[in-house]
Amino acid sequence: MADFTPDGGLWTARLIGAVSGAAISLAYFLPKDRQEAAVRFLTGVATGIIFGGPTGLWIAARLEVAATLSAVEIMLMGSASASLCAWWGLGVLARIAGRWGGGKGAGA
User: Fold this and answer.
1) Is residue 4 situated within a structural domain?
2) How would you write the pLDDT of the chain (108 residues) with one tens digit per residue?
3) What is the extent of the structural domain holding 82?
4) Is residue 61 included in any domain, yes or no?
5) Per-residue b/e over 84-100, b at no fewer than 16 CB within 10 Å?
6) Inside any domain, residue 2
């Protein structure tokens, strides 16, 4: 059975990783306006919080460093990575849809 007791350290690492990944994603690919920046930031934070654990475990296993990292480090790495990658997937699709859909998107 899964243990769902709250661990403050893991939740802190998850939140810090998600916020830092979202902030980095804004710096790498500048938004057009404040609304896009806010949507991207909140999407990144939510994605980092939700998918941070599985992403961190996957990365640690792929790099074969799981035995040398603590749970907090794995969570921080996973949350930041998931948050950073959220915009690359969703943002690229949104810009393509805006360009080809004839709407008011990034490429119009």
Assistant:
1) no
2) 445 566 778 889 999 999 999 888 888 878 888 988 898 899 899 999 999 999 999 999 999 999 999 999 999 999 999 998 887 777 777 778 888 876 555 544
3) 9-100
4) yes
5) bbbbeeebeebbeeeee
6) no
Which residue is associated with the tokens 């938004």? 31
How far apart, in whole angstroms, are the C-alpha atoms of residue 50 and residue 98? Answer: 27
Number of domains in the chain: 1
Angle between helices 71-100 and 8-28 (to 10 degrees): 40
Q: Count the alpha carbons within 13 Å of 52 in the hemisphere toward its beta carbon.
A: 30
Q: Per the domain annotation, does 105 fall within a domain?
A: no
What whole-number distance in Å separates Cα of residue 45 and Cα of residue 86?
9
